[in-house]
Specification:
Two copies of one chain form a homodimer. In chain A, about 30% of the residues lie in helices and about 25% in strands. With about 350 residues, chain A is α/β, with parallel strands linked by helices. In chain A, the strands form two sheets. A seven-stranded mixed sheet of chain A has the order 3-4-2-1-5-6-7, sandwiched between helices. Chain A has a six-stranded mixed sheet with strand order 9-8-10-13-12-11.
Chain lengths: ~350, ~350
């Protein structure tokens, strides 16, 4: 891109706000930064006031890069507006799930497959948060040893389901704390009132093994994203991937217990070296160390720790992987794609 | 045992209280029920007052069954007092971890291997909570198809680390709720004050992938229990077991994402039938259903749902398993062992 671009962020929920933050923090060179959302209003982000414009096809005139914040689970604004933006000359980077698996749409994690950006036809997709942090952690391992199998169990933060979902965790927690003030531990009533319209049950002091709707083989849509998107990003459908995705009462940062087996023989030292030399990864060489979600919040990297070998199976390992789902898992990755567009 | 026994519960923390509850609820036939703890005092359990006696070797005179509540992670009272009880004629059922792997000590989950009780030499061990619910879920599958591999990721409640640990979760949560009352979600400070002396970090709104100390191959003691105890209970050291054990901000009930592969070919229907016919298991035949920890609290069964096949590997499956870690995972299992002793 041979000009300083006009940039728009479409949608200003949890991911949209984080996109604005990433653009500012990374000093992304824009001529003009706009925000489009359903209704026009002013909003405050980190002390700065931004004017939000009501979204309209004509608004995309003169826009060079449109970052669609999207939302997991429901149709993103890109379904309605991506074509409008593209035909007016913008490149769309879409965080929504709607176009990720289309053949003509590159699905990009810059640390892994930024070269695929070149082939874009106006739309580039940002992968699912759970997938992104896993492929960043596994990229060098895949490159050096090829993955035979991935068995993933995730611990996912509420913000992955949007602001309303985090509000629900906070409301439930506040209600329980208030109702039980000064009570003895044995006398606590840990049930929040009302039915959750967001999760498949109470999320405060609970964990819920269902993210998204059910689909093939009774896997959830979230679980299938970790399969299908990983295959596409690694351009390797031979990897046997299976996962269980679980919501936990954490606001931000997803954790993943990743078990994997390589096709080529690999020792613990081989894997350790690959992780040490991985882009975007903070690797804890001490296998007894690890990151916690609260620590990863607001950070850009994927934190990988607790690397261990399976004592009974060769070339098989565990790692513990944590990353801010709103940043590397969504907003930051989209902004990194935009940065790569600038130098194409 | 050809008499109505005198019973003592040793230790009156989270598990000891639950032992008293199970004995009462199940109408366990005792002549006398005593409670021993470090110091003499009265305690109230579900509205009844119990006199606790200070523990002393002579106190075991006339005791027929001694249930040691034990604690995971530190040496249980059984290390000091089990011999004193046994030499005075008691059978000790120990919930602590100290004797579980000794050859002469049966390690018993009645639904799986109650026949091993017969060989006891005065001491019978209760397995670790995480192991118990997994072997109950897998028992019929092991019996019918033999397990080749188990890959476990656990979501463990704070009460597994004792009352103090649950108090810590409550204190941290209450402090954060109080400090942020009326605040906007974006302005929350989610950090509790002080360093945790119980967990490897803050547990409120966080998850911690370390339970117990580190041991061989950099697995934690909790993770190795799921390997070694499962081998012993199934009397089958050929099963390739590996696990990642994680603490979550839930008070009671552990959840487990269990991936397993059978030696003999098995279809989804085969596994479903085995689970349906499993003792102690509530099986959700609908693969889209599952239990949540809050629902399992106070219940006796192991709840198994979300049974799915691995789409890429034959005879390989996932299940989601939830159980009250203080009941089936500890107190109830010990009381069930005692019930089996009565009819020997």
């Amino acid at each position: 891109m041979n000009k300083i671009p006009n940039v728009v962020v479409v949608g200003i929920g949890a991911v949209g706000v984080e996109m604005i933050r990433c653009l500012k923090q990374r000093k992304f060179p824009f001529a003009k930064l706009s925000i489009f959302a359903r209704t026009a209003r002013d909003t405050d982000i980190d002390g700065d006031t931004y004017s939000i414009q009501a979204i309209d096809p004509k608004g995309f005139e003169g826009i060079d890069i449109a970052l669609f914040a999207g939302t997991e689970g429901e149709k993103g604004a890109a379904v309605t507006y991506a074509d409008e933006a593209i035909k007016r000359g913008a490149v769309v980077i879409d965080n929504g799930a709607d176009f990720r698996l289309k053949d003509e749409v590159p699905l990009v994690v810059p640390e892994v497959n930024k070269e695929s950006i070149r082939g874009h036809k106006g739309l580039i997709a940002n992968p699912n948060c759970t997938t992104i942090q896993m492929v960043v952690a596994l990229a060098q391992i895949q490159k050096r040893f090829k993955l035979e199998q991935i068995i993933l169990t995730s611990f996912q933060a509420t913000s992955g389901a949007g602001k309303k979902a985090s509000q629900r965790l906070w409301d439930e927690t506040s209600e329980i704390a208030e109702a039980n003030r000064g009570k003895n531990l044995d006398a606590l009533d840990k049930n929040a009132s009302g039915d959750s319209d967001i999760f498949a049950g109470q999320i405060a002091f609970n964990v819920i093994p269902k993210i998204g709707g059910f689909s093939r083989d009774n896997y959830t849509s979230e679980e299938l994203k970790t399969v299908d998107e990983t295959h596409k990003i690694f351009a390797d459908p031979s990897i046997k991937i299976t996962s269980t995705c679980v919501r936990v009462p954490v606001f931000t940062s997803h954790c993943e217990a990743v078990y994997f087996k390589t096709k080529k023989d690999a020792s613990l030292e081989d894997i350790s070296r690959a992780l040490k030399e991985s882009e975007g990864v903070v690797f804890y060489e001490d296998s007894q160390s690890f990151a916690l979600p609260l620590e990863a919040e607001g950070k850009d990297e994927v934190f990988v720790g607790r690397l261990r070998r399976d004592s009974f199976n060769k070339s098989s390992f565990w790692l513990w992987c944590v990353s801010d789902n709103l940043r590397k898992g969504a907003a930051l990755n989209a902004v990194q794609i935009a940065e790569n567009l600038l130098v194409l």
